Automatic annotation (TrEMBL):
Entry superkingdom: Bacteria
Organism, as annotated: Jiulongibacter sediminis
Coiled-coil residues: none
A GO term, aspect molecular function: oxidoreductase activity
Domain Nitroreductase positions: 27-194
InterPro entries: Nitroreductase, Nitroreductase-like, Nitroreductase/BluB
Listed CDD domains: iodotyrosine_dehalogenase
Keywords from the UniProt entry: Flavoprotein, FMN, Oxidoreductase
Name of the protein described by the UniProt record: Nitroreductase
Keyword Oxidoreductase attributed: yes
Length: 216
């Protein structure tokens, strides 16, 4: 163990930070129309390192972040995702689901998978590798990787870029395209970049504080 160093701030500083954090966070939107404008690899690396500060079960850090800018791989991912999505929209998703998605005007076509300069594909590691080749147990894998993704989404927004939580379903094609080992399963795909000039977002409400907080 070592001493924890806390950077104490006064109440006024904390209150004003909490307010400005809320205001900035309320501006975050999932964006589906991306510009092809490139983003430096160093920026993507810092965003991923920020995500990897997440807490995880027994600090096993059960995640792998694949960052793709190669246009050939992006094209492969788009083709495979659209094949699954087409099947999903036409046959797998029920009426209620399709109705719930209407405000978002989504469909099986996913041009953002090629337009965005980066795709970050987050893999969860169901287990790890021991040095002797055995399986290392991982704990609370979904919770841990979910938290890391939340930090990543926030970091992308706070630095002025946009993303979208894309979950092509099923998404096991990502393991093949990216040649991942069998202990890793695809968890979330995040295109990252700048919004297209005329990017549109749906007008959707968030729950009010009375709907979402219960004070005791
Ligand atoms: N995976 C599909 C469908 C989809 C499902 C939900 I729930 C969304 O919030 C948005 C889309 C797609 O990516 O279009």
């Amino acid at each position: 163990m070592k001493k924890y160093h806390h950077s104490f701030q006064n109440l006024g500083q904390i209150a004003s930070k909490a307010t400005s954090l809320l205001e900035t966070s309320q501006k975050r939107r999932s964006v589906r129309d991306f510009s092809t404008e490139p983003v430096d690899q160093q920026i993507i690396e810092n965003l991923i390192l920020t995500a990897a500060t997440a807490p995880s079960g027994a600090n096993m850090q059960p995640w792998t972040f694949c960052a793709v800018s190669d246009p050939v791989i992006k094209q492969k991912i788009r083709e495979a995702a659209e094949k699954e999505e087409k099947e999903g929209y036409q046959n797998r998703m029920n009426e209620e689901w399709l109705k719930d998605l209407e405000p978002f005007e989504t469909n099986w076509q996913k041009p953002f998978l090629e337009d965005a300069p980066w795709l970050i594909i987050v893999f969860k590691q169901s287990y790890g590798q021991k040095s002797d080749g055995g399986k290392k147990q991982h704990y609370y894998v979904n919770e841990s990787v979910g938290i890391a993704c939340g930090l990543l989404i926030n970091a992308i927004h706070q630095c002025g870029l946009v993303t979208l939580t894309h979950t092509p379903s099923p998404m096991n094609f990502l393991s093949q395209v990216l040649n991942r080992p069998s202990n890793e399963k695809p968890f979330l795909l995040l295109p990252v970049g700048y919004p297209a000039e005329n990017a549109m977002v749906p007008e959707i409400p968030k729950k009010t504080k009375d709907e979402l907080i219960v004070w005791y």
